[in-house]
Amino acid sequence: MSTTRHLLTSAQVARFVAHGFLRLDGAVPQEMNDEAFGVFEAGLPSVPYGTPVPEAFPEGSFARRLVELPFVAGALESLVGPDPTVDHHFVHTREPHQGSAQPLHADALIDLRTDAFDVQLMYYPQEVTAEMGGTLIVPGSHLRRTNESDTGRYQNLRGQTRLTCPAGTVILLHHGIWHGGRRNDSGRVRHMYKIRFNPTVPQVRLWDTTAPDSPDSPAVREELRRSFPWYEKATGRLEIHNRIKLWRAMTADPGYDIDYWATRVANRPA
Ligand SMILES: O=C(O)CCC(=O)C(=O)O
After folding, report:
1. What is the predicted pLDDT for the residue at 58?
2. Widest CA span of the chain, in angstroms?
3. For 155-166, what is each residue's pLDDT tens digit?
4. What is the C-alpha separation between 42 and 35, in angstroms, rounded?
5. Sorted alphabetically, which SUPFAM superfamilies does this protein's record hold (predicted)?
6. What is the signed CA dihedral for 124, 89, 12, 161, rounded to 10 degrees?
7. Sign of CA dihedral 222, 236, 206, 176
8. Ligand 1 atom nearest to 92, measured from its CA
9. Which end of the chain is flanked by fewer CB atoms within 10 Å, N or C?
10. So what's the pLDDT on residue 2?
11. 10-198: what fold?
12. Angle at 77 between CA 76 and CA 80, to 5 degrees
């Protein structure tokens, strides 16, 4: 993957750590959006776990050009580092007037990592309107450990978002995010192309850590302490604790904290 200098800032990465995803609206040029439909129709070869990007997506291929778009490449590099591998890619299609929604799920059956994560790219080549079965996402759900479709019995959660977006939008998601394709009530097909990236380096300070918003800046703190409407008043605070743990790992700062929460619960005098 080519390196770009469009790296994320600390506040943007902290926002990803809090929300579990990052939106890049209209990041893909219209010529590529037009081309995407033919590429999807032709079919995509499967990619086994751990395939380096240049092998998974040969030079000049659509997927390679997609992941090398400067803002996409910069955001990916900031989250999974240079030279990630790929283990899966797939075009998710919601057919016109499709009668049912997909149950809420996470794309992780068993994954207890607290200091590392895969990133899933979702790309929408066309405008997605409210009727078109945009992906439902539950912001802030990615660190609430669940096993794949165990969340399927939840129909709606306060604060969930059903994606609407302009053509060419890319979303990068933590692999643990709760999501699902919605019912397509429109007369138009809706495509979403997903690629899963696995880091090959420790996910430590991979973004632009320089000013103005350093990893311990007020802007970062504000992102990390964000609450979401579906959180329980007390248990919801565990999510902030989980973020502190992840931020400590991602910044190599074992003392990072918010309101002494992680410090307090680590106190075990000898
Ligand atoms: O179609 C969608 O919007 C989401 C599908 C998806 O991400 C999945 O099946 O895991």
Report:
1. 96
2. 67
3. 899 999 999 999
4. 11
5. Clavaminate synthase-like (SSF51197)
6. 50
7. negative
8. 1
9. C
10. 46
11. Jelly Rolls (2.60.120)
12. 75
Q: Number of helices and strands (H, E) in the chain?
A: 8, 9
Of residues 111 and 70, which shows the higher confidence score? 70
Q: Would you say the CB of residue 190 lies under 6 angstroms from ligand 1?
A: no
Using only the alpha carbons of the chain, give its radius of gyration. 19
Whether the CB of 179 sits within 6 Å of ligand 1:
yes
Q: Is 135 near ligand 1, meaning CB less than 6 Å away?
A: yes
- Using the mean position of ligand 1's atoms as its centre, give its distance from the Cα of residue 144 in Å: 19
* pLDDT at site 108: 84
- Residue located nearest, by CA, to atom 1 of ligand 1: 181
Nearest alpha-carbon partner for 74 in 168, 17, 3: 3
Between helix 10-19 and helix 237-251 the angle, nearest 10°, is 140
pLDDT in tens, 32-74: 999 999 999 999 999 999 999 999 999 999 999 999 999 999 9
Report the distance separating Cα 103 and Cα 149, nearest Å: 7
Helix axis angle for 70-80 and 10-19, nearest 10°, is: 70
Q: For ligand 1, is residue 183 a contact (CB within 6 Å)?
A: no
- Run of H or E residues at 36: helix 30-42
Which amino acid would we find at residue 93?
Answer: T
Question: What is the rounded distance in angstroms from the CA atom of residue 212 to the CA atom of residue 225?
Answer: 19
Pocket-testing residue among 21, 91, 92, ligand 1, by greatest number of atoms within 8 A of Cβ: 92
Mind listing the pLDDT tens digit for each residue in 118-128?
A: 999 999 999 99
Structure confidence by residue, pLDDT tens digits, 186-240: 999 999 999 999 999 999 999 999 978 899 999 999 999 999 999 999 899 999 9
Going by C-alpha positions, the residue among 123, 168, 173 that lies closest to residue 15 is 173
